[in-house]
């Protein structure tokens, strides 16, 4: 620990100097947003002062400097000189025209070592291997599997959570819910395993939490000398301890699935295994090398599949909440799709339903809203490239030396007046529509680089839009989502553009589901109570209320009322089963008395219902 104590003493003068500069700059604010280049420490005070709003501060600097800016960092860190740009001409030059000259670089690979040899961290031949294999996975049957995975998780996870909180009237962190949802979906899709991180009890799943916790500490490696964070890593202290714990949680989750692959062939692991073997025909591959490669491949797909969906939809619901006229148009389009599917028959429009691939393809305005959301709030707000040879960026004829870092700010590209016009800061989905609104306008990728461009264009772009449209359409069609008043919503200064304090919302049902007719697996209709229904549906070890097809995990949770004492639904425990008693047109007391009697007397045996498959009678969802 002596070495660590010495390291701390070494930085006491530095932090004292930073504090004095901070006091000076706050008392004597500059009119210009371009930071001062101080001796030795460079522009570090600028980052120190804007640590809570890095993306916005850099955006101000880039606007004033014409889209390209040279940042001078402290001479003793990994930030000595960095070219920061958001100019579409430079983006096209780096990602397309001079693609081979701009890999991510060895420093990026050191900092993000937790990602292993996955595609996020790979360059050149290894990256091509990942790309080809991922494209092979995304054949036509992949999207039918995606649809199945999404809707199964909507049914068993997302819907019960949203409905429960809409009934309780409590605040819900939509960002947390969407992160759990996307984590479960990608695991179901690639591993055929549901970790159930999204369920009514909102359990702590170490792997899912690790994905939330690890990115901040990794980003901090940029701001300290390499020897400093490596020393912390060796001593297992500070931010590096969090990286170590996150890595262990990820490995504990992934490696068992890699090992089980040998007994039960998984399509994803089998595809990557064959590709890796074909790529190393002349080299002997150890069992450990193969396991590590499969681990890295899945982890990178997990990060990509989880964060694009969760982050994109978080900002989607935030923007929709503040723009009810846009929400109304999205809802109108969704209802038109439903009406078309029904052949123009309006009956049943209120029924709880999913949305299939072909229906999502028809939601042009929803696609425009999602595109506009990601223009303003790109899930990955910036990227780093390092040239292998000296170059000149065309935007402002900026010279880039070999091994000098270039940071591309996608966040700022979407907010430049020179790129998107004077209304660049407005949330206006109409900018994405073709004349007549019948199609999506195709903007140059350098202007909208959210999914990368050139050879490294994201192969999951189609998948991302499909997932987002399925989930967005379901939620908007069934619920009103409103951000809690006075809840601060700010972009997190991190590699993934999450909301710093989450997204606290209040939910209300948009429409009540159509009343069920009497009959079905279990029906008791006392005389004079024709519209009152009692139904039970057993599926495996879970019990569902078929009115809304929700899991009933808490025996005495009132699902149809705002509180148990004012509920129009009583849950009656009978052995291992639960009977849900619904009342539609009269006080619940008389109905409960009418229905409880037969059950208690044993006239109706709930266990005789038997076990049925999901949605067996089609009464809850289409």
Automatic annotation (TrEMBL):
<keyword id="KW-0472">Membrane</keyword>
<keyword id="KW-0503">Monooxygenase</keyword>
<dbReference type="GO" id="GO:0005506">
    <property type="term" value="F:iron ion binding"/>
</dbReference>
<dbReference type="InterPro" id="IPR017972">
    <property type="entry name" value="Cyt_P450_CS"/>
</dbReference>
<dbReference type="GO" id="GO:0004497">
    <property type="term" value="F:monooxygenase activity"/>
</dbReference>
<dbReference type="GO" id="GO:0016705">
    <property type="term" value="F:oxidoreductase activity, acting on paired donors, with incorporation or reduction of molecular oxygen"/>
</dbReference>
<keyword id="KW-0349">Heme</keyword>
<comment type="similarity">
    <text>Belongs to the cytochrome P450 family.</text>
</comment>
<keyword id="KW-1133">Transmembrane helix</keyword>
<keyword id="KW-0560">Oxidoreductase</keyword>
<dbReference type="InterPro" id="IPR018247">
    <property type="entry name" value="EF_Hand_1_Ca_BS"/>
</dbReference>
<feature type="transmembrane region" description="Helical">
    <location>
        <begin position="6"/>
        <end position="24"/>
    </location>
</feature>
<feature type="binding site" description="axial binding residue">
    <location>
        <position position="458"/>
    </location>
    <ligand>
        <name>heme</name>
    </ligand>
</feature>
<dbReference type="Pfam" id="PF00067">
    <property type="entry name" value="p450"/>
</dbReference>
<keyword id="KW-0812">Transmembrane</keyword>
<dbReference type="GO" id="GO:0020037">
    <property type="term" value="F:heme binding"/>
</dbReference>
<dbReference type="InterPro" id="IPR002401">
    <property type="entry name" value="Cyt_P450_E_grp-I"/>
</dbReference>
<dbReference type="InterPro" id="IPR036396">
    <property type="entry name" value="Cyt_P450_sf"/>
</dbReference>
<keyword id="KW-0408">Iron</keyword>
<dbReference type="GO" id="GO:0006629">
    <property type="term" value="P:lipid metabolic process"/>
</dbReference>
<dbReference type="InterPro" id="IPR001128">
    <property type="entry name" value="Cyt_P450"/>
</dbReference>
<dbReference type="GO" id="GO:0016020">
    <property type="term" value="C:membrane"/>
</dbReference>
<keyword id="KW-0479">Metal-binding</keyword>
<protein>
    <submittedName>
        <fullName>Cytochrome P450- family 96- subfamily A-polypeptide 5</fullName>
    </submittedName>
</protein>
